[in-house]
Amino acid sequence: SGYPNEPSTPSFLSVDVETLQVQIDELSSFSDTPAPSVTRILYTDKDVLARNYVKQIMTNSGLSVREDAVGNIFGRWQGYEAGLAPVSTGSHIDAIPYSGKYDGVVGVLGALEAINILKRSGFEPNRSIEVILFTSEEPTRFGIGCLGSRLLSGSEKLASTLMNTVDAHNISFLDAAKSAGYDMDSKQDISSVFLKKGTYSAFLELHIEQGPLLESEGVSIGIVTAIAAPASINVGFEGNGGHAGAVLMPNRNDAGLAAAELALEFEKHVLQSGSIDTVGTVGIMELHPGAINSIPSKSHLEIDTRDIDEERRNKVIEKLHESAIKIAQRRQVKLSEFKIVNQDPPALSEVSIISAMENAAMVSNLSYKFMISRAYHDSLFMSRVCPMAMIFIPCYKGYSHKPEEYASRDDMANGVKVLAITLAKLSRE
Ligand code: HGY
Ligand code: MN
Ligand code: MN
Ligand code: MN
To answer: What is the pTM of this model?
Structure first.
């Protein structure tokens, strides 16, 4: 076929999983909470240290490294025909408070190891292969998930919202970015990161399952066929508050109890959706002033609901809104906020990439199964830019977003190998 060095057969692709584990451990040390937990929030000092650490590994692997205005980082392995749209892969390294060290990280460091094993095998890509470290996938600091990939996919709404978004300490997005070395002043700066259609021929993401299926069924590889549709809603109630002793019950309009009642009503709506695939979480519930002897005068809830069926999920959001209005009336509190922060459609994986992954698992003699991802990922937004698919590996008891998160060396090596073989194949198409 005239290409130098056809990809060597998978059996010669030996993954240096010891080095990968060392890198995962070293990266986890850049954290704002003590080991074994990891907390690494967008644009903090620890985030900057972690970014530099990964950029160094990209450089050591001979990749050309560039960053965009918001800090998405790209490491490119120049291909034989550099003019063609590259194959891309990657994930995130930011970590929610008190979480683990594998979520996202396996898809960044594992992608770099996939490139290293292809290089060691003498393979030369036709299309360039590009590893993307998305600037922030978790919603922690500015309340929106997949900030980096959402912008890459061209979200005008997010570009304008970020111009007047502040974090919990009243630091603006622009100032936070500046403190990390990303100097933006205008909406144009932010939207300069939008990718043109056709920038990439494909996007693949390696990720821990963040669920128990692969481990419990003893399956080595998950091939993701669809990513569930996530949505997040902010709700606020306001009442008169007052002295916990002096105000008798009939004279209260307790914003805290309104929040509590809404949370339980929301759970009912989710359970009554008609499908096990509908999930709902009230992950944040704040009471103001937050004193034991003061009736909450304000409450703030951040609600996460997802489903593989977008309509069914949207129905839950409508019922949530109806309940919030009803509870506010009944309890004589003000519904001060009901804001849908994001209401994203699900994403379907590209069939041709799914079969390339299936083939890679087969030639590597690995068991595999097709499955949906109930967690969202940067792939959800990259699917708006190019054909996408994901590779899952098992994680201990499905744990994620907590310090006990763990993926074995064998499982990581399997995932890296399937990623490498798939990247090699797609770089030749
Ligand atoms: O919440 C999620 O699904 C992702 O892991 N941030
Ligand atoms: Mn996560
Ligand atoms: Mn993740
Ligand atoms: Mn994710």
So the answer is: 0.92
Q: Coil, strand or helix: which one is 362?
A: helix
pLDDT recorded at residue 188: 96
Query: What DSSP state is assigned to residue 308?
Result: S
Rounded alpha-carbon distances, angstroms, from residue 129 to 144, 164, 191, 273, 420: 28, 35, 24, 42, 10
Fold match between 10-228+346-427 and 229-343?
no
Give residue 11's pLDDT: 56
CATH architecture of residue range(s) 229-343:
2-Layer Sandwich (3.30)
Shortest-distance ligand to the CA of residue 231: 1
Atom of ligand 1 nearest to the CA of 103: 5
Q: Verify whether ligand 1 is closer than 6 Å to residue 375 (CB atom).
A: yes
pLDDT at 13: 84
Domain 10-228+346-427 fold: Aminopeptidase (3.40.630)
Helix (H) or strand (E) holding 371: strand 368-373
CA dist 349 and 347 (Å) reads 7
Model pLDDT, residue 6? 52
Q: Separation of 411 CA from ligand 1 center, angstroms?
A: 21
Task: Give pLDDT, residue 2.
Answer: 38
ipTM of the complex: 0.89
Residue spans of the chain under pLDDT 50: 1-5
Atom of ligand 1 nearest to the CA of 401: 5
CB 179 within 8 A of CB 167: no
Q: Of 207, 185, 186, 182, which is closest to residue 42 (Cα–Cα)?
A: 182
